[in-house]
């Protein structure tokens, strides 16, 4: 039988379909454009190839092309009924995640990996900060993911994709030396322009306070990245943050306008809403004047993309956009929806999103001590909203600014000094 890149048998008998599938999967795993064309080729060569359909569904879902993803899910499930047990299980795990059944997907994934630990596409939905662990709401989610990947490491050896996600999990749990070793080895092996690996490298540099080096790396790396790629928006956010941290404010705004702000460049709605709101707020904390027009555009984009509460990480930034744009009615409506979900047991992070939103609102109104009370309550639980440590620093930065505004500099200094004692401190990069 033909095999995929991980040595797992495939039911297709078409070598051309297999080759296009392997290349398409690598595009999905590395977060670069091209998977649509490659997986379409795989399907054209073998229309009954279930795994090509489910890989396409996963890529389309990540691109927020949900209608097309649903069609591919339906077709994949139909075809998988005639595939091997491994491919049936593979299809089921990925489809469960795409169908909005994360708890079932997680359980099915763990069962699947006992038999087929090298099934990377099954593992992949668990490795993102927006994935099965990332959005679980569990305060121990980062360590849980690291422990899972560490246990699987012997099965993968020095595979470039696995070492990149293993690196990021190490970074998010404070194992920075290991993270650096893994990501450098991954980048040395990758056969393509791996956007996720470059992204994970930048996170390690962020945690080490290496903003100048991070900006230099990205300035050399980004021009080769297709703007249609999943990661283009978020890596542009990293360019803007690194430039802001090093005092290159014109470059920061250029990167933001052309790569992050709604209409500046393509990006999945989750990335555009969260990265745009985050950068604008961070820029203000760094002393930049508020742009009412930009905030209105971000708020409008958030309202279109996430009209109802439910995705906690998006909710935090949608609420922040409401605060900055002065839209109290929408703010209160979204908070009410979150409270209803909490009462129904359908909001994994619990009340931490409410505490964060109230803290941002208090800060915006000049109620420094009110902001401090809310954000101090939220900080130990912020991991539950999803996102990376670098992204969640928005809460720490706002709390530090509130301490300073309230003439409590010692507490601001103490918060920043906890940088070396993550997971709930503020990174050294955020001190600039």
Unreliable segments (pLDDT under 50, ≥5 consecutive)?
Answer: 423-432
The coarse overall form would be globular
Strand content: under 5%
- Could you say what the CATH architecture of the domain at 279-432 is? Alpha Horseshoe
Radius of gyration (Å): 21 Å
Quaternary structure type: single chain
Mean of the pLDDT scores? 95
- Report the total helices: 22
How many β-strand runs? 0
The CATH topology of the domain at 279-432 corresponds to Serine Threonine Protein Phosphatase 5, Tetratricopeptide repeat
Q: Strand count, sense and closure of the main sheet?
A: none
Share of residues in helices: 55-70%
Quickly give the structural class. Answer: mainly alpha
Question: Helix and strand succession?
Answer: HHHHHHHHHHHHHHHHHHHHHH
Which CATH class of the domain at 279-432 applies here?
A: Mainly Alpha
> Could you give the distance between the termini?
56 Å
Detailed description of the structure:
The chain has helices spanning 15-30, 35-45, 50-62, 66-80, 85-98, 102-115, 120-127, 141-156, 160-172, 176-189, 195-207, 211-221, 232-245, 249-259, 269-285, 292-305, 312-325, 328-343, 352-364, 368-378, 389-405, 409-417. It has 432 residues and is an all-alpha fold. Among the domains are: 1-117, Serine Threonine Protein Phosphatase 5, Tetratricopeptide repeat (Alpha Horseshoe); 279-432, Serine Threonine Protein Phosphatase 5, Tetratricopeptide repeat (Alpha Horseshoe), CATH 1.25.40. 52% of the residues are buried.
């Amino acid at each position: 039988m033909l095999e995929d890149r991980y040595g797992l048998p495939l039911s297709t008998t078409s070598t051309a379909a297999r080759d296009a599938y392997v290349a398409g999967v690598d595009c999905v795993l590395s977060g670069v454009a091209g998977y649509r064309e490659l997986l379409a080729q795989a399907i054209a060569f073998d229309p009954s190839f279930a795994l090509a359909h489910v890989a396409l569904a996963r890529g389309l879902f990540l691109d927020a092309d949900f209608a097309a993803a649903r069609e591919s899910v339906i077709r994949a499930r139909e075809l998988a009924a005639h595939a091997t047990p491994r491919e049936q299980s593979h299809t089921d795990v990925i489809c469960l995640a795409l169908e909005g059944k994360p708890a079932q997907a997680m359980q099915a994934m763990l069962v699947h990996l006992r038999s087929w630990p090298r099934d990377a596409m099954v593992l992949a939905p668990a490795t993102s900060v927006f994935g099965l662990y990332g959005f679980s709401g569990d305060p121990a989610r980062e360590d849980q993911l690291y422990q899972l990947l560490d246990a699987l490491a012997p099965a993968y050896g020095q595979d470039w994709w696995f070492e990149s996600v293993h690196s990021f999990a190490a970074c998010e749990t404070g194992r920075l030396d290991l993270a650096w070793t893994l990501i450098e080895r991954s980048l040395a092996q990758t056969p393509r322009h791996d956007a996720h690996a470059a992204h994970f490298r930048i996170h390690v540099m962020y945690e080490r306070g290496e903003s100048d080096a991070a900006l230099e790396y990205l300035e050399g790396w980004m021009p080769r990245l297709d703007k249609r790629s999943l990661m283009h928006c978020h890596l542009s956010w990293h360019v803007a943050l690194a430039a802001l941290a090093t005092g290159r404010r014109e470059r920061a705004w250029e990167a933001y306008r052309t790569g992050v702000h709604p209409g500046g460049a393509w990006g999945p709605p989750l990335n555009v809403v969260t990265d745009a709101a985050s950068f604008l707020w961070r820029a203000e904390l760094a002393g930049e004047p508020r742009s009412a027009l930009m905030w209105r555009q971000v708020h409008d984009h958030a309202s279109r993309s996430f009209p109802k509460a439910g995705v906690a990480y998006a909710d935090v930034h949608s609420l922040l956009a409401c605060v900055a744009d002065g839209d109290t009615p929408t703010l209160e409506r979204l908070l009410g929806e979150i409270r209803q979900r909490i009462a129904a047991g359908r909001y994994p992070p619990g009340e931490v999103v409410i505490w964060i939103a109230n803290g941002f609102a208090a800060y915006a109104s000049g109620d420094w001590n009110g902001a401090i009370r809310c954000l101090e309550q939220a900080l130990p639980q912020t991991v539950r909203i999803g996102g990376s440590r670098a992204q969640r620093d928005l809460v720490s930065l706002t709390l530090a600014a509130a301490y300073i505004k309230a003439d409590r500099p010692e507490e601001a200094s103490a918060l920043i000094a906890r940088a070396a004692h993550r997971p709930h401190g503020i990174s050294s990069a955020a001190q600039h």
